[in-house]
Prior knowledge:
By secondary structure, the chain is mainly alpha-helical. The protein is about 50% helix and about 5% strand.
Amino acid sequence: MRRYFEQLVDPGRDIPAASIPIHGITPDMVAGQPMIDEVLPAFHACARDTVLVAHNATFGIRFLQLKEARTGLLLDQPVLDTLLLSALVQLNQDPRRPEAIAQRFGIPVTGRHTAPGDALVTAEVFQNLVPLLVERGIHTLGEARSAAQQSY
Length: 152
């Protein structure tokens, strides 16, 4: 079953003007949106019993973990990081930018720095990484997580 979750969040503070051209989220867009205390439980429920796949997951997941004590929720789902997996199978390539990885696979990048756009590119990158992982003898979630931790 596919699960999809997208929700703007009122950050409870000003959005730095310099970041607006990057992600396109303006103060008007988050005005009246729920706070993270409301959104995180909904995300947690949606992501229950799943494997989270993210690019540079340590960075993104850390923001969610900082809210765990306040919300009482523990994000304990296994995580696969396309940054680390790409570094593992595409040696001598720059795995940091998702656009660069997508380009190597011929994946078009649209909607960059939006939740749906970034999620779709990350999913397509992951799908392209799986056969490369298999070629290296990595077949299970546990093997992929272990190998990813050794890639950097």
